[in-house]
Amino acid sequence: MDIRRLRYFVTVAGERSFTKAAEKLNIAQPPLSRRIQEIEEEVGAQLIERKSRPLRLTPAGRLFYEQALQVLERLDQMSSTMQRFVGNVRPRFVLGLIPSGFHDRLPQVIRRYRMIAPEIDLSLIEMNSMEQVEALKDGRIDAGLGRVRIEDDGIRRELLREEPVLAAFPPGSMLGPPDQPIDLSQISPYPVILYPRGPRPSYADAIVSMFRDYGIHLTRTIEVTELQTALIMVAAGEGACLIPTSARRLAHPEVLFRSIRPQVMSPIVLSHRIGDNSQGLKMLFQTFTTLYQEWGYPTPGFIGQQD
After folding, report:
1. Which residues form the HTH lysR-type domain (predicted)?
2. Which regions of the chain are under pLDDT 70?
3. Residue at 301 is within a domain
4. Could you list the residue range(s) of the whole structural domain that residue 209 is in?
5. Which residue intervals of 169-226 are DSSP H helices?
6. What is the pLDDT of residue 307?
7. Residue 81 maps to which CATH number?
8. Distance separating alpha carbons of residues 240 and 222, to the nearest angstrom
């Protein structure tokens, strides 16, 4: 069923005459009659009572007419919408990220980007680090923010900064003075709550590897999907977990936090396609440069440099 034949049928039904419809469509009457017959053969029902003057639609014809009008109206709307979009299209930059991992500074980054690059349509998509790599390779996103370094020949990873990791303990834990760092060994007696559960590799793997590097065996681990879930379980006394410092404000007020000795850091990694010199990526670099200066962070050496 093609659109041209639908328009033919709607015109015949509206004019209630093959002759008038043919004149309006600027075609000969015999080809117009054949097109209507083809429609009837395709739907398996007579749509027009040809012996009546003026022409009348059969019950099947009235139903078909109503449906055809809706289809043509929707098609016209789609055409108009696309014309408006093409006429007003703006460059688009899509950023993949894990919102729970960057909630502290992320709103400022987004606002500043839109302020310095109002001509670019910035879109955010929630996805983990593994999904970001695939989305970058497929062209579905233009950059990704994550906490796991994933090696891929087509992706360049930029270290934005290293953030200190804190240990979160249940209320009432006997930990000593609040300003006194704790050893990693003081965490291992607790069930260690890891997040996210999958896919791997993830932040959870980085935490497990850190304990192994220091020769500490975790006797019990609990895997959960989200950072917020891990902090709720800590507040409920189910175990301890390690979180980036910026996530501290998500926790219940009674959760106890301690810095760790030796200090443990969590990377913030910006990933993008090798060779990407787009204006959108340059504006993201400029955003981080400006904000890092305001926050007092050292500016990464790669900022402003692209392949």
Report:
1. 1-58
2. 84-89, 99-103, 302-307
3. no
4. 163-265
5. 203-213
6. 47
7. 1.10.10.10
8. 10
